[in-house]
Amino acid sequence: MDIKKRVLNFWETVIEQNPTKIQTYFQSNAIINWHNTNESFTPEEYIIANCEYPGKWCGEVERIEIIDDLVISVTRVWLADKSVSVHATSFFKFSGEKIVSLDEYWGDDGAAPQWRQDKKIGKAIK
Hints:
alpha+beta
């Protein structure tokens, strides 16, 4: 399977919160880092963090870039009830078809801060 399709399938599996299928994407000694919250996970811990998060998730991969053995994805994830919406920028390193490291940066979606709105700078992304 090509690496782009593998990343798209990975995200579908994460959104489904399917622990058995998520496990198949990782080497057993893979390291997953969430830099925003200063957390480092084993694959098993990453699965708990994703699959036990409350609610039903939806999501879509917005962009994938491949540079040698590095794959970068930008994915929007939201709760089905639309109470939460976030973007994840993820940096995957693979060995064959297995993820050996994954560095993720998660950010909440929302309006610009009031101080920038007050300055009337920027505009909505089309």
